[in-house]
Amino acid sequence: MNYKLDHIGIAVRHLDDSIQFYENVLRGTLLDRYKSEAKGVESEIAILEVSGNRIELLAPTNNTTSPIARFIKQKGKGVHHIAYNVNDLDKALKDLESKGIRTLKDTLRINKHGRRLIYLNPADTDGTILEYCDYPDKN
Fold this sequence. Notes:
single chain, alpha+beta, 2,3-Dihydroxybiphenyl 1,2-Dioxygenase, domain 1, 8-stranded mixed sheet, 3 helices, 21% helix
């Protein structure tokens, strides 16, 4: 199994201000911006590329139910998760299970860009939120 850094997700309060920082200071390029009101997501997302690396800025759209709002309330804004692209998400999930690593099963989904993703249980990753993802349509 290959594990390649896919992107870093960053929780922010004000998406426009954060986009300006990444564009003007880090010379990033805004690739997409969209809202996801799916249950358990409730966020506005901006995808930027900075020197060949992907950054996802995540701002809550619902301060009551958004996991990003909960994250900011508990830990403040900043790095929310690190995503790893795996060649085959189904095989990676079986491998995790064989090692006793749990996932947050309710986070399994396909996003607007065709990326299949799931979050690992932070209790099993030393507190770091990790995402595993693949792009089945690009294989």
